[in-house]
Amino acid sequence: MGVGVSGWRLARAVARTGQLGVVSGTALDTVLIRTLQSGDPGGHLRRALAAYPVPGTAGAVLERYFVEGGVGEGGRFLTTPPLTADPGCPARALTVVANFCEVWLAKEGHRGPVGVNYLEKVQLATAPALFGAILAGVDYVLVGAGIPAHIPGLATRLSRLEPVTTDVTVEGDPEPLPVPFDPAAELAGAAVGGLRRPDVLAIVSLPALAAYLHRSERTRPDGFVVEGHRAGGHSAPPRGPLRLDEDGDPVYGPRDTPDFARMAALGLPFWIAGGACGPEQVARARAAGAAGVQVGSVFALCEESGLEPGLRRQLIERRLGTGLTVRNDPAASPTSFPFKVAGLPGTLADPAVAAARPRVCDLGYLRTPYRAADGALGYRCPAEPLVAYERKGGDRAGTEGRQCLCNGLTAAIGLGQRRPKGRVEPPVVTIGQDLDFLPHIAPGGEPYSAESVVRWLSEGLDGTAGAGPARTAGAKAL
Ligand SMILES: Cc1cc2nc3c(=O)[nH]c(=O)nc-3n(C[C@H](O)[C@H](O)[C@H](O)COP(=O)(O)O)c2cc1C
């Protein structure tokens, strides 16, 4: 969930160098409406909205959410009801528009490649979000946090403006629920043609899943990202029974180390991610048969990152100074995937801050559908208020240590909700566990650009066979 950290500014800066710049596609509707309510400094979103192919839809978004000069320090942000399986749900149109705007801005003014990143677990959002990105001409879609078997077909059909169905898992139902999405309906008769199908990159932790996806033409992506467990954000849990170390983090073993020869044998391009930031790592990745590396943490700390500047400074200063702890917390994420949490004071990593935060669930990206006893379809999240979760049949034991990543990550990009009595949502900060690039790229903690990162990584291409960095290094933002 790189919510807004890997925003359009960062992706554009990377794409301009000829490398793939990737925007995070999670929670973009909230990022859009809160930025509009903050006065849309620079007018960027209004410029993107003006390019949206359905002026009526874009105009309605502007009308409802834009606040000239912003709501101000104490002002509360208007929210929207979360996405549901209902085809008439208004959050769908907003999701399409928001993904369009983010990708459109990332692609503005250059010809470099731009990708968008989704979490498979956030199933209800994927079809409308990907359609918005395709409308803006996205070049790649990267999907992890689950088994992205249906994404290749989804990308094909959406780019042809054909209706799609997403099979959504409903807890308590024996079969998934087919949720339809019709891209043509979103266009309300507007003439749109010539949409390009983006390439699909599946994010995997081990070759076994890659081989499974590769087996059938229906599920085969165009390439893979092989992500290790020290990468920022969510990670796959270790194979086998979960064992925890003295800090309570999962213990990974040799079975969790990917065999890159097996990856190479599949014959599709792949990129190595997770602590792979440096020229030597690029050279090693290429020697192992990879097309390049995917890096995230180094970009999260650069000047074009969407991470709130104060938090960014603290991360850099602590890593270069007294030390920074980054836990791989197996409980924090409602998805139940381990999630990297930086130990910064004033954030949800501080148990006192987490305990003082009243549970509120008003964004709901990580809610999962469930079947209620009366047969109705409901939605619940283990980080929501306990009474509500238990009323919905949720097990209290599964709520221990869960954090509201939706509100926490939105706060980390300076768009946190203000609550009654002057409370402000505390941030939660995710970053990778390998930040060894910092002493090289910013030895004195000085600000650095995304472009300087790409230049540094490209040194690893010296002496490797093949074309130059623009075609092959594959350094990517989050
Ligand atoms: C702040 C942050 C947020 C991230 N969010 C996501 C995400 O939403 N989805 C995803 O697939 N990967 C996410 N990642 C992982 C990156 O895409 C990338 O694979 C990883 O950062 C590479 O390893 P590194 O952190 O050691 O550079 C995130 C990484 C960071 C630092």
How is this structure best summarized?
This protein has helices at 8-16, 28-37, 44-50, 55-65, 91-107, 123-135, 151-159, 183-187, 207-215, 260-265, 279-287, 297-300, 309-320, 351-356, 386-391, 405-411, 438-441, 450-458, 469-472; strands spanning 21-24, 114-119, 140-144, 164-168, 177-181, 199-204, 223-227, 270-273, 292-294, 326-329, 339-342, 368-371, 377-380. The protein is of the alpha/beta class and 478 residues long.
Q: Secondary-structure blueprint of this entry?
A:
Elements: H1 8-16, E1 21-24, H2 28-37, H3 44-50, H4 55-65, H5 91-107, E2 114-119, H6 123-135, E3 140-144, H7 151-159, E4 164-168, E5 177-181, H8 183-187, E6 199-204, H9 207-215, E7 223-227, H10 260-265, E8 270-273, H11 279-287, E9 292-294, H12 297-300, H13 309-320, E10 326-329, E11 339-342, H14 351-356, E12 368-371, E13 377-380, H15 386-391, H16 405-411, H17 438-441, H18 450-458, H19 469-472
Parallel strand pairs: 1-2, 2-3, 3-6, 6-7, 7-8, 8-9
Antiparallel strand pairs: 4-5, 10-11, 12-13
Helix pairs in contact: 1-5, 2-5, 3-5, 5-6, 6-7
The structure holds flavin mononucleotide.
Flavin mononucleotide binds at residues 1-2, 5, 24, 26, 117, 119, 144, 203, 227, 230-233, 273-275, 277, 294-298, 300, 430-432, 434, 478.
GO molecular function: monooxygenase activity
Keywords: Monooxygenase, Oxidoreductase
InterPro entries: Aldolase_TIM
